[in-house]
Amino acid sequence: MAQPSASSLVSSHRASDSGLQIHLHPLVLLTVSDFITRHTLRRQQGPIVGALLGQHTGRDITLEHAFECQVVAGPQGALLLHQAWFQDRLQQYKDVHKDPALDLVGWFTTTPPTGPEAQHVPIHQQIIHDYNETAVLLAFHPASVLAGGENNGKLPLTVYESVYESQEADGDRSMDLDGQQLPLNLKFHELPCGVETGQAEMISVDFVARGGGNAASVDSSAPSMGKGQASQAPVADKAPREAGSQPEAKALNDSSLLSSEDEELIASLTARANAIKMLHTRIQLLRSYLTSLPPSYFSAPPESNGTTSEESPATGQAEINHPILRSIQALVHRLPLLIPSDGAAFEQESLSEKSDVTLVGLLGDLTRGTKNLREMGRKFGIVSDAKQQGRRGGMRNIGPVYEDTDEVFQTHTLQMGQPYEWTPHRNA
Predict the structure, then answer these.
(1) Within 10 Å of residue 108's Cβ, how many Cβ atoms?
(2) In angstroms, rounded to a whole number, what is the distance separating the alpha carbons of residues 414 and 403?
(3) Residue 60: strand pairing partners
(4) Which contacts qualify for 203-208: CB closer than 8 Å, 24 or more apart?
(5) Cis omega before residue 234 (within 30°)?
(6) How far is CA 405 from CA 135, 400, 426, 427, in A?
(7) How far is Cα 140 from Cα 39, in angstroms, rounded to an integer?
(8) Which of 127, 138, 332, 348 is a Cys-bridge partner for 108, taking CB atoms 3.0 to 4.6 Å apart?
(9) d(Cα 130, Cα 65) in Å, to the nearest integer?
């Protein structure tokens, strides 16, 4: 029996009858991309298979967590999940994620952009038969990543649900005789998918984005920099320059170190600069489109502006696309909402708030200065009293302590202007 091609596993019905909505969390994307990256760099053999954890509420399915899975060869050579290992790992994840309670909602793997292949069917059937009959498939497309700009900025993935459809012979439904039903085959429906982010995930994604922006690729074949590069120099040339090069290298290394606050500031400024560049690029694109339109479209009366996008314009002029023009007009009409209607009142209010903030800062500085002056006055008084006590005479201890078998004579403190006073103490 010939295996079906990749296109035959995808249902011919474009619209899904289930109405399921998929909410994908960024943590799943990070886990899947990390798994694929490690699998590729380590040159591991075998398919990339993992499980998806989330919640299924009504017609909404959330994909919140993911973990990689082990696969084994089945009786007929088909790849299946390791049953004992998968059950233990799934139970561990359920014990950890109890609030809210997460369950197995699907699995992920890599597929061509055309859709799942025949080798993916046994694993999917195992999951829907043993764990969840409504499990979905998250298919990641590495070919779309290699294509780069050809993906039109979309995520290189597709979410499928499984359905059983009858096999029609040459498109003729009249082949059913005496109530005989045609065999049912497993098909995949594409589902709409959206990205949903939680507060904790925003923090983690921001940390990963900042780390990725500061990271640099390391080429093992290239010579190392800094101290490693100096160590590769010949010994004869290194010895005379060693004494003079160490202070310069140390100063260079000290100047290149950045604190965590500096790195965070640089990452934030870089993100804002990229956003401004992107905004400038989009504005220039809109301006170039508007300037490329035929002049008659703007100068002619409104009733004569009936040119449609299907009409071929002159050479060097863009086609008139009314949906794009309406979107541009709506964007222009929303700009006044971002600009205050009364500019003078807004500037006065901003100046007043700035003055209040500055005044509070000055009051804080004044309070701290008063506290410092008070502390200095207290310390000055303590020093002055000590000096005066030193001039009049302080407390002094003089004379030893004499002991006798019958009496113990102890010397008392001698005050200025007072005679010695001896007090005998009898031993018990």
Answers:
(1) 26
(2) 19
(3) 21, 57
(4) 204/26, 204/27, 204/30, 205/26, 205/30, 208/30
(5) no
(6) 102, 17, 9, 8
(7) 14
(8) 138
(9) 20
Hey, what are 322's tokens?
């009314």
For the chain, the maximum distance between any two Cα atoms, rounded to a whole number of angstroms, is 138
Q: Which of 193, 185, 183, 184 is nearest to 160 (CA)?
A: 193
For the chain, 428 residues long, give each residue's pLDDT as a single digit of tens: 444 444 578 877 655 666 788 999 988 988 998 899 898 888 888 889 999 999 998 888 999 999 999 888 887 888 899 999 999 999 999 998 888 889 999 999 998 888 888 888 899 999 999 998 889 999 998 888 777 655 666 788 889 988 887 765 444 444 554 555 667 778 888 888 888 887 777 777 777 766 655 554 444 444 444 444 433 444 444 444 444 555 555 544 544 577 878 888 888 899 889 889 999 998 998 888 888 888 777 765 555 444 444 444 555 566 788 888 888 888 888 887 777 777 788 888 889 999 999 999 999 999 999 999 999 999 999 999 888 888 776 555 444 544 444 444 444 444 444 554 555 555 44
